[in-house]
From TrEMBL, chains A, B:
Keyword Transferase: yes
Polyphosphate kinase-2-related domain span: 38-259
Molecular function in Gene Ontology: phosphotransferase activity, phosphate group as acceptor
Highest taxon in the source lineage: Bacteria
The name this protein goes by in its record: Polyphosphate:nucleotide phosphotransferase, PPK2 family
InterPro entries xrefs: P-loop_NTPase, PPK2-rel_1, PPK2-related
Amino acid sequence: MVELGGLLRVEPGGEPVDLSAYDPRGTPGGPGGKKKGLAEIERLRPRLAALQEKLFAQSAVGGDPRRLLLVLQGMDTSGKGGTVKHVVAGLNPVGLRVRAFKAPTEEELRHNFLWRVRKALPQPGEIGVFDRSHYEDVLIARVHDLVPEATWSRRYAEINRFERGLAEDGVTVLKVFLHISPEEQRARLLARLDRPGKHWKFSPTDVEDRARWPDYQQAYEAVLERCSTQEAPWYVVPADRKWYRNWAISRLLLEHLERIGPEYPEPGFDPEKYRRLLLAL
Amino acid sequence: MVELGGLLRVEPGGEPVDLSAYDPRGTPGGPGGKKKGLAEIERLRPRLAALQEKLFAQSAVGGDPRRLLLVLQGMDTSGKGGTVKHVVAGLNPVGLRVRAFKAPTEEELRHNFLWRVRKALPQPGEIGVFDRSHYEDVLIARVHDLVPEATWSRRYAEINRFERGLAEDGVTVLKVFLHISPEEQRARLLARLDRPGKHWKFSPTDVEDRARWPDYQQAYEAVLERCSTQEAPWYVVPADRKWYRNWAISRLLLEHLERIGPEYPEPGFDPEKYRRLLLAL
């Protein structure tokens, strides 16, 4: 794990990852407290929006294939949906493609696990967001023995090949593990039970999954160790503090969009000619 | 045309529509000026977000099929994209499906004109937005003779059948024609030519279409006359003033969501039981 601008990136190469070494309440690289964090998030919004517009424009007019895919993974209540609602919501919906993956349908189960993922990918110029993803097929599938070990163990390499292909197609893949503590999860699940308007976010399976916490942490560590690649590294974002989570993901989005470096396309027409035409029309 | 809460709705039944009778700078039913309009839009945002969350929840958990589709049509610069950016952007992206339709691809042309539209429909619980739509197939297709009259003239009835089917599937269809004046369009096109950061929004075909203004108004009148049905009526929103346009569409979204009347689903579990389990776990 290295700190890049304070953010935790899992180095490609398969080094062992021990999640217990990272404090879910931590704020590595943070802007110094909640108040500054919230202000910084607001300061980042227009910069993100400006980059998104250029990304969209260079594809819509210039045919540029590049796009961004943000993959959000983490235990229940770790803030995947909250990130979409509070960070992604600032972007222009026309260039956004958000997909929340649930348990696969019968039709999806008849295909390879990547089938439904391919259909949900961002198109050129778009920002895509996955709330859960193909990684569930080596997480819940592994912890709950939904498929034999021989099947899920092959998937890590298949995922790496898939994501390498995405990179070749111009997709910048930004993968974030939202690292929450069991204590914070308990508090958030209890809050969902306490408020009728939040009951719909609660499922009895959340409690079953919680009972398998160590198995899930182990499954996440395997993902981080095996699927952090040069083309698509994993980031670990401590997520007990919502403001830090939102700040960190805003920062990561900004850095990755800046790395793409989108630019407005050159006009394929003479503006002066059309100005004259319009003034006459 | 009737005024409902001041908003212009085309009555089903095929009465003649004369767009020149409606002032594009008008603010029918408006809240009384720009300042009040902007304040009112902000006041509506949390109400829209709350209704959207219930719509999403009752489908995600309760299996309710209902959803909303906002169809935006209008001349270039009439504010279809602006509506998405300034009104729709306030909603939670996870329950949103926005699609901007361009000239059909070769693959799309090999299918019936409704093929690509069906693929872009909102799923249960979602709010869908079409920036342009199947109506282009009786607008640009008619004005520019892209297909024979025998073809486009059959499409009005086909569209009505299609939208009746949507209503039966639980889709509330809200269709808005953004009514802009040629003078305002000239100003907006000139603004796009003046600023390099806006060049990408300009296309030489915008000027060609502008030269066919009367033909387009006639084609829009035919749409409003023939395709305003009980299940899916058309609304005419004067769009020269952006604040009014945003206010009117916020109001329309609110009214249509309230008509659906979404409610949080009943929990399929005993909250008290899980509260005890969690406190022990």
